[in-house]
Amino acid sequence: MSQQFMSMLRKAQQELAAERILEAAGTARHLVEGFPAMADSWIVAGLVARRQGRDADAEQAFRTAANRAPKHPEPWRQLGILYQVAGRLREAEAAYAQGLRAAPQDAALNNNLGTTLRALGRSKDAEQALRNAVRKRADYAMAWQNLGNCLAEQGRHDDAMEGWEKAWTLDPSLADSGLALARTLLNNRKFDKAEAVYRKILARDPDNALAQRGLRWLRRRNVPVWHFPMMNDTPRNEAYRAAIRRAAQRGGRLLDIGTGSGLLSMMAAEAGFQEIHTCEMQPEVAEAARAVIAANGLSDRINVIAKKSTDVKVGKDIPGPADVLVTETFDSALLGEYILPTMDHARHALLAPGAQVIPRGGSLKAALISGEVLRQQFYAGRSMGFDLSAFNQFSPLGVSLVLDCYPHEMVSAEQEVFRFDLMSPHPAEKRVIRLAADRDATVIGVAVWLSLDLDDETTFENKPGATGLASGWHHGVSFFLEPREMKSGDTVEVIASHDRVVVEIVVT
Ligand SMILES: C[S@@+](CC[C@H](N)C(=O)[O-])C[C@H]1O[C@@H](n2cnc3c(N)ncnc32)[C@H](O)[C@@H]1O
After folding, report:
1. Quick one: average pLDDT of 286-300?
2. What was the pLDDT predicted at 1?
3. Rounded to two decimals, what is the model's pTM?
4. Do residues 62 and 48 make contact, with C-beta atoms less than 8 angstroms apart?
5. From the CA atom positions of the chain, what is the Rg in Å?
6. How far apart are CA 166 and CA 148, in angstroms?
7. How far apart are CA 16 and CA 47, in angstroms?
8. 477: burial class by Cβ within 10 Å (0-12, 13-18, 19+)?
9. Which of 57, 102, 224, 397 is 20 to 30 A away from residue 111, measured at CA?
């Protein structure tokens, strides 16, 4: 190879690398005119033509290069890239295959063939090519990423993790591999590992929106969404505030079990309680409550203890037993947040004799319910002239929803299902009540809601229609097997039971 050819070739390559395309075009012209037998002259001419958007000329130049040096992989690689970018995938596959015949060890050709086969939907063949690429070059980060993506496309996310992990470790700028790895770790509930990956991505690129979102998802994953409507539930908040204000007249040490946002403790501070302690079992929620309380200038009035109430120690976390206990640790069926075990512990370990508990008790109430929209939501009947009711074997046994969102009617008097006095122990219970239809109606089942006796004066009830849409508490509906045509006076037996945590309402 002449020295002149070599220096001209180098010049053209440098001009291309520096994006000096016009100069590169001139040099390429000299190369093909002066050294038409050399494959590299045509490759450079093809590369220039591609940069100038002249794909047909580029294709011609690469093909000429391939004719000049059929055993040289580079013309085939460049042809393959040209076809692949243009979406001419079968031609790209053929070009890469030719190149591989010339240089079977070429990792980049295997990688490119793999991505082409992936695009053609031939994932198994693609996997093979990509595995060849990483076998030939174990530090080929992009090929590992492609292999990971290819395996994921086959639904083999666990296998894909190796590819993504290798890619991202070899080249941390391949954030997509890190993100895909973190997402799969999340799906596999490997939360700590996923968090570490997100943090590492953000250490490199603090603005990476997907990593930020992943971390945010992790932080909120244990915090139920009902916190929001609950905080906005004005009737609930007002009922608590009224009882807290009355209790403040007698004063003393107040303990709020279940801080949440800190709302009830802040109401206690506003009402004049001088010593307020509150415990929260979810550490991230306790931390947020401290921020909320600080934002309201009440940090020196409220002691937030990041513990479950049953781990709180008098003499350590709080200086002495509480004179007033306020708690809102009730799920829609009252017992699901373990209020009975919580109170069993609080009564003997956290409260002073004669302490006041807000609420002092609560109950679950029930009534028969009918409603065409609800029937359509949960049962099949006649549709398009066909009887679909055999499908009702899959109707839900019960649902939890905000009944105010669905037109409905209560078609019996309401009845108490269970009543709890929070100052007394309550064993598991089972009882049967009867509900009588007060009109002719198509009845779908029984609606259940809660009622809290905050103190002697204030009761809060989330009876449908009573509180509006912003409530964290849902209504329960237990369904019949099929909607039932009832006449006024017909009765239904309801079997209600609880094991101190889970309430079950069965309509017969
Ligand atoms: C329904 S929210 C009420 C939040 C706040 N008190 C309010 O009324 O706006 C109940 C909160 O209590 C917490 N919690 C439930 N049982 C608890 C317990 N035994 N000890 C400490 N926290 C508890 C939950 O994690 C949740 O944040």
Report:
1. 98
2. 61
3. 0.83
4. no
5. 36
6. 9
7. 8
8. buried
9. 57
| DSSP character at residue 506 | E
Cα three-residue angle 226-223-469, rounded to 5 degrees: 10
pLDDT band at 409 (very low <50, low <70, confident <90, very high): very high
Q: Treating both helix axes as pointing N-terminal to C-terminal, what angle do 209-220 and 191-204 enclose, rounded to 10 degrees?
A: 150
For 471, phi then psi, to 5°, come to -140, 140
* DSSP helix/strand/coil, 20: coil
Ligand 1 centroid distance, CA of 228 (Å): 13
User: Contact at 8 Å (CB) between 404 and 446?
Assistant: no
The CA-based angle 506-507-508, given to 5 degrees, is 115
- The residue whose two tokens read 């809290």 is 452
- DSSP per-residue codes, 27-81: HHHHHHHH-TT-HHHHHHHHHHHHHTT-HHHHHHHHHHHHHH-TT-HHHHHHHHH
Residue with tokens 């204000």: 245
Q: Does domain 361-507 have CATH number 3.30.950.10?
A: no
CATH topology assigned to domain 3-220: 1.25.40
C-alpha to C-alpha distance for 294 and 428, rounded to whole angstroms: 41
Pocket test for ligand 1, best of 238, 265, 281, 290 (most atoms within 8 A of CB): 281
Domain residue extents for the chain: 3-220, 227-358, 361-507
pLDDT digits (tens, 9 = 90+) for 443-492: 999 999 999 999 999 999 999 887 766 678 999 999 999 999 999 999 99
Q: Is 308 in the pocket of ligand 1 (CB under 6 A)?
A: yes
CATH, range 227-358: 3.40.50.150
- CA 15 – CA 21 distance, rounded (Å): 7
Task: Compute how many other C-beta atoms are within 10 angstroms of the C-beta atom of residue 455.
Answer: 17
If you take atom 17 of ligand 1, which residue's CA is the nearest one?
258
The pLDDT score that the predictor gives to residue 470 is 67
Span from the CA of 445 to the centroid of ligand 1 (angstroms): 31
Answer yes or no: are the C-beta atoms of 184 and 213 closer than 8 Å.
no
Say if ligand 1 is within 6 A of residue 329 CB: yes
Judge if the beta carbon of residue 337 lies within 6 A of ligand 1.
yes
